[in-house]
UniProtKB/TrEMBL annotation:
Antitoxin component of a type II toxin-antitoxin (TA) system. It comes from Aquibium oceanicum. NCBIfam families: phd_fam. Belongs to the phD/YefM antitoxin family. This is Antitoxin.
Amino acid sequence: MRQVGTFEAKNRLSALIELVQAGEEIEITRNGKPVARLVPTTGRDVSRAREAAEVLRAIRAQARTGPESLKDLVNLGRRY
């Protein structure tokens, strides 16, 4: 794995991204200590995000709806 400092990473980001697209992993360091890693994404990441979005949509569709407006919420709070 290639290591680059934060200054070099900032100045050469486009070139580093090309290396990552080619499959290489790059570790970014600050004062010699690792702080970040550039890694290629996979098609699985996209499919997992889509699955999560579908689950959230289903949960939202099943959620009970409450009062329609702020006024309704205030009035509901005044009852108790």
